[in-house]
TrEMBL record:
Residues 1-11 have a biased composition (Polar residues). InterPro entries: Homeodomain-like_sf, HTH-type_TetR-like_transc_reg, HTH_TetR, KstR_C. It comes from the Bacteria. Residues 26-86 form the HTH tetR-type domain. It comes from Actinomadura miaoliensis. The lineage of its organism: Bacteria, Bacillati, Actinomycetota, Actinomycetes, Streptosporangiales. Residues 1-28 are annotated as: Disordered. Residues 49-68 bind DNA. Keywords: DNA-binding. This is TetR family transcriptional regulator.
């Protein structure tokens, strides 16, 4: 696999080539993220060695570091990709459950099923995010997705609305349930049952 020259500088494109460069950058970034996800799905975070990711993606190591300065930045990008898929799924097929708690649990179980198809990857992502000092918006995005499911896509809640806080609390419950499943201490059915109880208690004011 031929690596890209390390002297390539994506920022030097002329105005006439800017559109093509941008597409090239996006494609290169996607290749890197997909390569990292594939490695993590087989061997967890430990398998996501930066040099190995670069080789699998067909880019130079220096290019990889320009896109992702650390392994944790790369892990966060993989998580964001998974969340993109979840958001797209929810947009195409909105939750059909009648109650706000039921709709949020439906979204969370979609996320659960998606992640548990690749347990090694799921374990790598959850564990790394819990230990990461890299700032991300992933918690905010998941909470916003649940908020739209609970209150409706057109709901405009103030930033200090306490319902935002309880939705964030529900995402924390889900994270712990994911850990229990990944450790073999709970089945998806058991976790769903507990999520339904938590959602019913937390979201009773929606």
């Amino acid at each position: 696999m031929t690596a890209e020259p390390t002297t390539t500088d994506d920022s030097t494109a002329g105005a006439g080539r800017q559109g093509g460069r941008s597409r090239s950058q996006l494609q290169r970034r996607r290749r890197i993220v997909q390569a990292a996800a594939a490695l993590a799905s087989r061997g967890g975070v430990e398998a996501m060695q930066m040099r190995t990711v670069a080789e699998r993606a067909g880019v130079a190591l220096g290019t990889l570091y320009r896109y992702f300065p650390s392994k944790m930045d790369l892990v966060v990008a993989v998580v964001s990709e998974e969340l993109d898929l979840l958001e797209g799924s929810v947009e195409r097929r909105p939750p059909r459950t009648d109650s706000p708690p039921g709709r949020t649990v439906e979204v969370l179980m979609r996320a659960t099923r998606g992640l548990m198809r690749e347990p090694e990857l799921a374990d790598a992502l959850i564990r790394s995010l819990l230990l990461s000092d890299v700032r991300t918006d992933i918690g905010d995005r998941l909470a916003a997705l649940l908020l739209r499911a609970a209150a409706g896509p057109d709901a405009d809640l103030p930033e200090d609305d306490p319902r935002r806080i309880v939705v964030r609390a529900l995402t924390s419950v889900w994270t712990m349930e994911m850990i229990e499943m990944l450790r073999g201490r709970a089945t998806p059915e058991e976790s769903q049952s507990r999520l339904e109880i938590a959602a019913a208690r937390l979201l009773h004011d929606f």
